[in-house]
Amino acid sequence: MKKVLVAMSGGVDSSVAAWLMQQQGYTCVGVTMKLYENETVGYCRSRTCCSLDDIEDAKSVAAKLGIAYHVFQFAADFETQVIGRFVAAYESGMTPNPCIDCNRYLKFDRLYHRARELGCDSIATGHYARITQQDGVFQLHAARDADKDQSYVLYSLTQQQLAHTEFPLGNLTKNEVRRIAEEQGFLNAHKRDSEDICFVPDGDYAAFLERYTGRTYPPGLFVDAQGNKLGQHQGLIRYTVGQRRGLGIVGSEPLYVSRIEPETNTITLGGKAALLRTSCTARQVNWLAGRIPEAPFAAQVRIRYHAAPCPAVVTPTAEGIHIAAQSPLSAVAPGQAVVVYQDGQVICGGTLN
Amino acid sequence: MIYADHAATTALSKAALTAMLPYFTEYYGNPSSTHAAGTAVSRGILAAREQLALLLNCAPREIYFTSGGSEANNQALRTVAAIGKQTQRQHIVCSAFEHPSVLRTLDELQDTGFSVTRLAPNQDGLISAADVQAAMRPDTVAVSVMLANNEIGTLQPIAEIAVGCRARGILLHTDAVQAVGHIPVSVRGLQADLLSLSAHKFNGPTGTGALIARRGIQPYSLIRGGGQERGSRAGTEHAAGIVGMAAALQEKNSDMPKHIAVVTALREQLISGLLELPQVMLTGSPNARVPGIAHFCIQGVESETVLALLDERGICASAGSACAAGALEPSHVLRSMGISGAWAQGALRLSLGADNTPEEVRQIILAVSEIVTRLRKGTV
Q1: What is the mean pLDDT of chain B?
Q2: Is the CB of B341 inside 8 Å of chain A's CB atoms?
Q3: What's the CA gap between B360 and B356, in Å, rounded?
Q4: How many whole angstroms separate alpha carbon A58 and alpha carbon A63?
């Protein structure tokens, strides 16, 4: 019988993923990755440890399914590969996406390696995305449920990883998933979706960074495109490109962060028009088919997790890709991922410059 | 299933179960009650207390029942802290590889003004009595060193440490949780002022342990309420657990030499078998250890994987330390011994009991060898 390692977070999605794999006849091994110590992320000592609650939920589902279950310690790797990169990105004025790093370095690398060690053929997760195969090449597609689609954070998957990965929720909607969880009597059927970054549960990134690094991020200048002083910012880490709220500056038109310069500790603000770019480039590009196309091609690009894909022409370059958008892209944030689709199929993805 | 995790817990012995059963059905009175139903239970507890006193070579009144080893350790340290506060001596010496119930309590005491010296063991996993002596200060109120380490099984020179403590009027606490029932433990012989033990480590029930406190030391009560345990532990006594603990230890002690011989032979079989694998190290002294515990550091593998694969083959083992969630923690015991990196990652604790057989040990050796060989080859 085929054996699969199911990454179980304790949430409803990965619980149902485990059930679906079992229904398909797989022998399942449930695994929860312990990614951080509560102390590391300054977690709420006052309330019940949240990550322990999640583990309890995963255990409960594994017991209900009668599958093997383990909690594996990945905190050291998570700190280096995910939290470390997150901090470095913010400190250099970029907008990181830690979920992508976690998928790339932890779930589909360390955990996959562990799966192989445990004799599993593949790894299954509760991601909303679809993997298909055509002419011996594996393809990654957006999920049927467009609202829940997570293909954006999965662009780093290689052919080898796609060949050994299962996304059993790819053809289901969130409502269908919750219904299965209810039918199966999973106690997390109505658990709310996690929205924030797991190691910053309150969403206050600036407070996390200050606590974690022990550093303070000094105030600096807000300037306009011409370099005229507009006011004082409260430390670089509190801002990302495209941000409008919390600037505390009143202008004749709504102002947005258009540029962050760590070298001079300066943040440039501008109107909505200043955010528009007709072209951009990305580096560290992963081509899902495993080979780089020779010619430019028409595609749809997504520059933020839940942004609508925009038509563009994508040109492979020596450093990565060049993107020429059909209509201007708003708030291209360095450090964020750009993912290139063709009719819902992920062609490539990389990090915006 | 092959159970090789006796340091975690043990099966309840028939003798203990037999002793306990009437206390769930027939003898259900509250031992504090003065009527016949209560008296029947209080007499059972008294008998158990006297029996345990004989087995441990202490006075019956020096035994304070607790919910287990962790509570006994907490209570022992809170007791010396209270004495330290009264006598203006706020320094405590311990080993760096004590059980978390000792270390976390000492962390808290440190937050309230105590200073704590944590002594590192040598590479054999042994604390030197001379180091303990050298760490003593005029304001040292107590020394706390475990009798047997729970992860690696090494035996500490408590009697020798006690001599130094006596000479300077310093209290000695020893966590004997992994020793009682496995080697002869005499409270008088060790000259310990405070000693912790736990029933389920020697085929007694979980939820029952004891703190032994030398006459003249009133254990500080962690729980406020009625006057049970002579004011040192409020709450209705767990009579079934207490009589079960006494019965379990009675059985262990009466068969001790044979038990030690059998389990030691199994352990030696295991050690020599696993040391045939390349890049495997026995952690701690080969000689100064409790009969049942053997701990290995295995290069080129990760404990979590080895344990999961052993579990699949029906072999229950441990790495020694896990967090509340069940994930493995980097072991403070190994760190204190200077073992880190690739060696510490492949920690494996196998703890045997008299119910194991040479055939089971052979199967364990075979399974570990196969798993380690396969993992080292890399299957990905």
Answers
A1: 96
A2: no
A3: 6
A4: 9
Q: Write out pLDDT tens, residues B152-196.
A: 999 999 999 999 999 999 999 999 999 999 999 999 999 999 999
Q: Decide: residue A307, CB within 10 A, 0-12 exposed, 13-18 middle, 19+ buried.
A: middle
SS3 B183: strand
In the CATH scheme, what is the code of domain B14-253?
3.40.640.10
A117:B326 CB<8 A: no
Q: Give A340's strand partners.
A: A301, A348
- In whole angstroms, what is the distance from residue B10 CA to residue B27 CA? 26
Using an 8 Å CB-CB cutoff, list chain B residues near A58: none
β-bridge mates for residue A347, sequence order? none
Between β-strands A310-316 and A266-270, what pairing exists: parallel, antiparallel or unpaired?
A: unpaired
Distance CA B95, CA B131 (A): 10
Q: Of the candidates A261, A275, A17, A273, which has an alpha carbon nearest to the alpha carbon of residue A127? A: A17
B308–A118 C-beta distance less than 8 A: yes
| H helical segments located in A4-109 | 12-23, 50-65, 75-78, 84-91, 98-101
pLDDT at A194: 74
| Tally of CB atoms within 10 A around B325 | 18
Task: Report how many helices (DSSP H) and strands (DSSP E) chain B contains, helices first.
Answer: 14, 12
Would you say B145 and B174 are in contact if contact means Cβ atoms under 8 Å apart? yes
Question: What is the H or E stretch that residue A131 is in?
Answer: strand A129-134
Question: Domain limits of chain B?
Answer: 2-9+256-377, 14-253
Q: Which residues on neighbouring strands pair with residue A261, listed in sequence order?
A: A266
Is A245 within 8 Å of A238 (Cβ atoms)?
no
Helix (H, G, I), strand (E, B) or coil at B23: helix
- Asked if residues A180 and A189 have their Cβ atoms less than 8 Å apart, the reply is no
Write down the CATH superfamily of domain B2-9+256-377: Aspartate Aminotransferase, domain 1 (3.90.1150.10)
- Three-class HEC string of B239-304: HHHHHHHHHHHHHHHHCHHHHHHHHHHHHHHHHHHHCCCCCEEECCCCCCECCCEEEEEECCCCHH
Structure tokens at B340: 């880190």
- Which secondary structure element, helix H or strand E, spans residue B347, and what is its range? strand B347-351
Verify whether the Cβ–Cβ distance B379 to A117 is below 8 Å: yes
- Whether residues B327 and A73 touch (CB distance < 8 A) is answered with yes
Residue A45 confidence (pLDDT): 44
Strands B171-175, B194-198: pairing kind: parallel
ipTM score for this prediction: 0.83
The ranges of chain A with pLDDT < 50 are 45-50
A217's tokens: 């991020």
Write the residue in B308, B324, B380 that is nearest to A70 by C-beta: B308
Q: What is the CA radius of gyration of chain B?
A: 21
Residue with tokens 């992320």: A41
- Which of residues A274 and B231 earns the better pLDDT score? B231
CB contacts of B316 in chain A (<8 Å) are: none
Domains and CATH numbers, chain A: 3-183 (3.40.50.620), 217-270 (2.30.30.280), 275-352 (2.40.30.10)
Beta strand extents in A238-353 (DSSP E only): 256-261, 266-270, 276-287, 297-302, 310-316, 320-330, 337-342, 345-352
How far apart are the C-alpha atoms of B51 and B41, rounded to whole Å? 15
Among residues A11, A93, A20, which one has the least CA distance to residue A263? A93
Gap from B147 CA to chain A (nearest CA, Å): 30
Using a CB-CB cut-off of 8 Å, the residues of chain A touching B304 are: 70, 72-73, 114
